[in-house]
Amino acid sequence: MPRKQHRAGYYDKKIAKRMDIQEKLHAFQQYIDAEEKIEPKDWMPEEYRTHNIRQISQHAHSEVIGMQPEGNWITRAPTLRAKKILLAKIQDEAGHGLYLYSAAETLGISRDEMIQQLHTGKAKYSSVFNYPTLNWADIGAIGWLVDGAAVTNQLSLRRTSFGPYARAMFRICNEESFHQRQGYEIMLKMAKGTKDQKEMAQDALNRWWWPALMMFGPHDNQSSRTTKGMLWKIKRAGNDELRQRFIDKTVPQSEFLGLTIPDAALSWNETTGHYDTGEINWDEFNRVVAGDGPCNRERMDHHKRVHEEGAWVRAAAAAFADKQKGMADAF
Ligand SMILES: [Fe+2]
Ligand SMILES: [Fe+2]
């Protein structure tokens, strides 16, 4: 059905007023099933709104917290070229955070509230950023594996049903694929370098492989939110399917590097056409999500401290905006 016509039936306030909740829910689902986007001013079930706020703000927090493990290496990048690329990459992540906070704000939550939720532990961020970056190859492994996993997830989110989130994903995905390539370039240089460099690359792969797989979340049959998320097309593919997609794409890349994936059970399955893998250590996953990973406290302390130190910048920006508005109103 053409968008205008379809939209009129769903969104027209006079019609909506006469609908009861069941009729609204039905129209909402039909609209989603027709692959239309839900926009901020449209009627939506409260649970759809909170589901999106939780997912988008968690995504935004991950972009911002994810700057910390990499920022740690800006001053120690081995060449000026590597430093410039890393700076550009980290700056992109800040931009991704800002897009996503803005997308979440359209659902009626303020940026301050989201930051509060992060600081009190009510909102989460990706557990992968609670692991330390011990050597330069870790920057390669993060770009290759962590950004590679992120882009696998985010490509599918370009078709998410909430308009502002879907549109943010298009731009973000373009930048994420550059991040994945910059990481792979570092890994390639090290894997084909001296014996010591190759060992560093292997060590980084050993430490980042499993946390990268954990980024896709629990198995779908263990995840209570998957069903509603799929029904409302907030999520467009299951955790296990996305994880498998990432594994199938990444294993040949590690072979090209001459590095070994740290999973003795990894093997190609002719019948399914996918790689079989060993099981993720879910105890470790749950521990890190619950706040007891190697760097959880460090990441949060750093974020809180910088947020407090930056209070004057926010106050100055708000005062400046008020002044501009006052001047505009005077004319
Ligand atoms: Fe990003
Ligand atoms: Fe990235």
Topology summary:
Layout: H1 3-11, H2 13-18, H3 21-33, H4 46-65, H5 67-71, H6 80-105, H7 111-120, H8 136-157, H9 163-191, H10 195-214, H11 226-231, H12 239-257, E1 267-269, E2 274-276, H13 282-292, H14 296-309, H15 311-330
Antiparallel strand pairs: 1-2
Helix pairs in contact: 1-3, 4-6, 6-9, 8-9, 8-10, 8-12
Q: Could you characterize what this model shows?
A:
The chain starts with a helix and ends with a helix. It has 15 helices and two strands. The chain has helices at 3-11, 13-18, 21-33, 46-65, 67-71, 80-105, 111-120, 136-157, 163-191, 195-214, 226-231, 239-257, 282-292, 296-309, 311-330; strands at residues 267-269, 274-276. Helix 8 packs antiparallel against helix 9. Mean pLDDT is 92; it is low at 1-5. The chain is mostly helical. Strands 1-2 form a two-stranded antiparallel ribbon. The protein is 69% helix and 2% strand. A hairpin with a 4-residue loop joins strand 1 and strand 2. The structure holds fe (ii) ion (FE2) (2 copies).
Question: What's this model, at a glance?
Answer:
This protein is 69% helix and 2% strand. By secondary structure, it is mainly alpha-helical.
Fraction in beta strands: under 5%
- Report the total helices: 15
Mean pLDDT: 92
Sequence of strands across the biggest β-sheet: 1-2
Radius of gyration: 22 Å
Give the helix level as a range of percent.
55-70%
**Overall morphology:** globular
Ligand list: fe (ii) ion
Report the structural category.
mainly alpha
Largest β sheet strand count, sense and barrel closure: 2 strands, antiparallel
Query: How many beta-strand runs?
Result: 2
**N- to C-terminal separation?**
46 Å
